[in-house]
Amino acid sequence: MSAERKTPDASPAAEERAEDVTVRDAVSAPDAEGRPRRATRRFPLFTRDTARPEGGGRAAPGDAPAPARQWPILAVLLTVGLGLLLTALDLFRLGTLLIGVALVAGSLLRWLVPDVGMLAVRSRFTDIVTYGGLGLVIVLLALMVQPNPILVIPFLKDTLHFTVSG
């Protein structure tokens, strides 16, 4: 048994069969040649291409210098870097607050700016929830750090007391 592969252009009969194909399923998509085919929800065995994120374009025109094209991710990364530097210089609360604020700002940028360049990693919704959620948790933890916490949540002390003494 030979495994010959016929292309649609190989014979006129193959072209006629391809044009006669009708897809009656609710879910259909064109193949590489534009003919309709049934699309399944199953992932392909071999991936031939990768999808770009929703906002994966440039944040500035192509003739702008590289840093200007990616200003949203650079702003977030430089702010996080400054926060890490402050944390290393023994300003823990201020540094972690700055890191959390940078992530919340990244979430806001992802929501408000249509083309954010490399700041777009996943879908817009997932990026906003991820950046915003992590940033909010880091800000809250930075406000609760000891000694002299700025934010005191009363039931946390009771919860810790019951878990340790029980």
Describe it:
It is a single chain. A hairpin with a 5-residue loop joins strand 1 (28-30) and strand 2 (36-38). Strands 1-2 form a two-stranded antiparallel ribbon. Helix 3 packs antiparallel against helix 4 (92-112) and helix 4 (92-112) runs antiparallel to helix 5. The protein is built from 6 helices and 2 strands; from the N terminus they run αββααααα. It is flat, with a radius of gyration of 26 Å. It is mainly α.
- Which ranges are low-confidence, i.e. pLDDT below 50, for 5 or more consecutive residues? 1-8
Q: How many DSSP-defined strands?
A: 2
Strand order of the largest sheet: 1-2
Q: What does the average pLDDT come to?
A: 77
Strand content: under 5%
Keyphrases for this structure?
mainly alpha; single chain; 2 strands; flat; disordered N terminus; two-stranded antiparallel ribbon; 166 residues
In short:
With 166 residues, this protein is mainly alpha-helical.
